[in-house]
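2 proteins. here.
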Amino acid sequence: MICFALYAAARATNRCYVSLLKPWGLTYPQYLVLVLLWTHRSLSVKDVAEHLKLDSGTTSPLIRRLEARGFLTKERSVDDERTVIVSMTESGTALRKELAHIPGCVAEATKLTLADSNSALSLLRNVATNLASAPAPENPPVERS
């Protein structure tokens, strides 16, 4: 069953990140927000949620915790007061060097060759795209006696 294999792989990956991020007191979702902002420097909360495929109910607490730790700031957009912009602080930017080893550690832990890793990444992206764009499946009618 592909679904269980995906579930098990996701749980194992999360365990790996939990162990690696523990010294910094970060969760994997918080780490993902940091990685995203290291790339983009500033994004709206909505864009963070879209990039990470999270809902606002999940994204806002992540951002709030990272802001409380001084890794990022939030401010209203000058163009649209309804939009909140999240930006990396110097402290958050400095953290990038401290955490630079993490992707390599996770890649090494998978014991996949580069070719297998690239192949798996391509397949997983296809699965995610296909499932995201597919209509929600319906259960077939059940005859009741």
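next one coming up
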Amino acid sequence: MKLADLGEQGVIELFKREFETLECASVLKSIGDDCAVIRLDGGDCLVVSIDTILQKTHIPREMTPEQIGIYAVNVVLSDIAAMGAEALGLVFSTALPQDMNRDFAGSIAKGMAQAAAKHGTSIVGGDTQKAEEIAITGTAFGRVKEENLLLRSGAGVGDLICTTGEIGSAAAGFYCLTNKIDGYHGFIKRALEPRARLREGKILS
């Protein structure tokens, strides 16, 4: 059986079976939620998430280098927001082609820095590699009180379910880009410049 036959969830389960044997008492939540959760002293929890964007699947030609950076930061911070946590910092592994223009790469970095600052956090480290195509992997760290932690398992019968933003607008934007449909600039902007809902997540927690 190939990985394509398993699907994303099947691949996750494949790894999860092995990783579960490594858990320790301080790990409150591991694979299966938006972030891993590690219990700290004083009632605080450290939440950690990781996300990768790839040129072929996440970066349309219409995306500017600044938007690539903005996208990379907001994608991984969205998981921190989903847990109701405040962002502490980010690290990135950035793989770029060697023939990329210096200014283009600098603009990616500028977009990343601006997006992090907009959410009151910063990029504190990382790694750079050579690659045939752009691949950016971000790890975000956040902090939240254990009693305020938002988990996928926390919902129950009778709870009020709320959403933020316009559901499907980013998908509609990517559809417009893929099919060269003009006139829907709002949708396209949401696709190219997603926004992590950190403020809303903290309010809900």
